[in-house]
Design a protein that fits this description.
With 235 residues, this protein is mainly alpha-helical. The chain contains twelve helices and four strands; from the N terminus they run H-H-E-E-H-H-H-E-H-H-H-H-E-H-H-H. The chain folds into two domains: 153 residues, Periplasmic binding protein-like II (D-Maltodextrin-Binding Protein, domain 2), CATH 3.40.190.10; 45 residues, no CATH class. The strands form two sheets. Strands 1-2 form a two-stranded antiparallel ribbon. Strands 3-4 form a two-stranded parallel sheet. Helix 11 runs antiparallel to helix 12. The relative contact order is 0.18. The model has no long low-confidence stretch (mean pLDDT 93).
């Protein structure tokens, strides 16, 4: 079951593009319309319409999986603990699959973070810094990982007791060694993820022409880059 398209389709399908030897972009070069990218998304479309072994969640693929509606899904590590609590069956966890041109190093990093706004008072900034320090303590990041499935942010976090109780988390920790940062187009172009989601939706829910859809997406992403990003880049 592919995740609901509102749930970060650009991030979720990043591994498919990498597995086929392409991506949303290569640096600032938009590559979503490359032959390899089109082949990757054609495979995704075919899995739904031709092979009929895949579907698209209408809301939350993690909930679909936990309910036993589907046998497999791709989801955030942050959904793992919830899945384990809700599922009435044994849950297996594996690395993200690759493709014909890359069988490893196809897992994108992601997730939320904590930051301190520059426009708040010095007292608020200090309080925020103290909170970030607290959340980053080894025992606290381990506790957060145990509660969610997200990865601990400190190598010094002792995960022994947590992994004894929830061994599935170990797979996600092991996969950290083969993660990569996401493509620039998905991370740094304002609103790009929603444009990617619209294109993916057209491909997998409307059986839209893949090459034409990706060509249109490139024009959109290129426009965002030229208008909102390129002028702010410095040499």
């Amino acid at each position: 079951m592919y995740p609901a398209l509102a749930g970060y389709a650009g991030w979720t399908l990043q591994n498919n593009l990498w597995g086929w030897g392409s991506g949303w972009s290569n640096g600032w070069d938009i590559t979503c319309d490359s032959p390899d990218a089109a082949a990757a998304l054609q495979w995704v479309q075919d899995s739904v319409y031709k092979g009929k072994w895949a579907g698209v969640s209408s809301k939350d693929s993690a909930d679909d999986f936990s309910a036993g509606i589907t046998s497999t899904t791709i989801s955030s590590t942050g959904s793992l603990v919830g899945i384990l609590k809700n599922a009435k069956f044994n849950v297996g966890v594996g690395f993200l699959p690759g493709g014909p041109k890359a069988s490893t190093n196809v897992c994108p990093t992601g997730g939320a973070g904590l930051g301190i706004p520059s426009g708040i008072s010095r007292e608020q900034q200090l309080a925020a810094a103290m909170f970030i320090k607290f959340m980053g303590e080894p025992e606290n990041t381990a506790a957060f990982s145990a509660a969610t499935g997200y990865m601990p942010v400190r190598k010094s976090a002792d995960m022994t007791s947590i992994l004894a109780k929830t061994p599935q988390i170990q797979t996600a920790i092991d996969q950290l060694a083969v993660t990569k940062v996401q493509d620039n187009a998905r991370v740094f172009l304002p609103g790009a993820d929603q444009e990617m989601a619209k294109s993916v939706a057209k491909i997998v829910t409307q059986q839209g022409d893949v090459k034409a859809t990706m060509a249109d997406l490139k024009k959109t992403l290129q426009g965002i880059y030229e208008k909102d990003v390129k002028p702010k880049l410095t040499a």
